[in-house]
Amino acid sequence: MDTVVVIAFIVVGLPVARGLALAAYSEYLEHRRKVEALKSSGNGGEVKQLRERIRELEQRVEALEAVITSPEFQLFQERMRQIQAEAKKSLPSTQQQLTLTPQQEKQR
Fold first, then answer.
1. For residues 91 and 7, which has the higher predicted lDDT (pLDDT)?
2. 34 and 61 assigned to the same domain
3. pTM of the model
4. Cys-Cys crosslink for 9: which of 4, 13, 45, 58, Cβ 3.0 to 4.6 Å?
5. Can you tell me the distance from the alpha carbon of 12 to that of 8, in angstroms, rounded to the nearest whole number?
6. CA distances, 80 to each of 66, 72, 76, 88, 91 (Å)
């Protein structure tokens, strides 16, 4: 039984593995050709600009993460919730309908 498995692996497995390896290698070579073409096409300045823009955006995201995770920001959010709750309590309810007295209706 073991020899059948070995023979099946040799007959089927090795050609499949070879085909996959060749496909991966050809993809690698194609990628390498594309990278070399981009480098030689004079887009180096554009690539540098894009890399600089990425660095700037990463710094901005890091700064925003630092602000949002800071204890001061958490306290600020809690205080804003308190202020909103107090404001809702102090404002007249929108569900209460204003009724006009008969004198006010005549003035209309």
1. 7
2. no
3. 0.37
4. 13
5. 6
6. 19, 12, 6, 12, 16
Q: Identity (one letter) of the amino acid at 30? A: E
How many domains does one find in the chain? Answer: 2
More confident residue, 98 or 35: 35
pLDDT tens for each residue of 35-92: 888 777 766 677 788 899 999 999 999 998 888 888 888 888 899 999 998 888 887 6
Residue 107 lies in a domain: no
CB atoms under 10 Å from CB of 17, counted, come to 11
- Domain with 75, as residue range(s), is 56-88
Cα distances (angstroms) measured from residue 70 to each of 42, 76, 77, 80: 44, 10, 11, 16
Whether residues 2 and 33 share a domain: the answer is: yes
5 plus 36 within the same structural domain: yes
Tokens matching residue 7: 């023979």
Residue 83: inside a domain:
yes
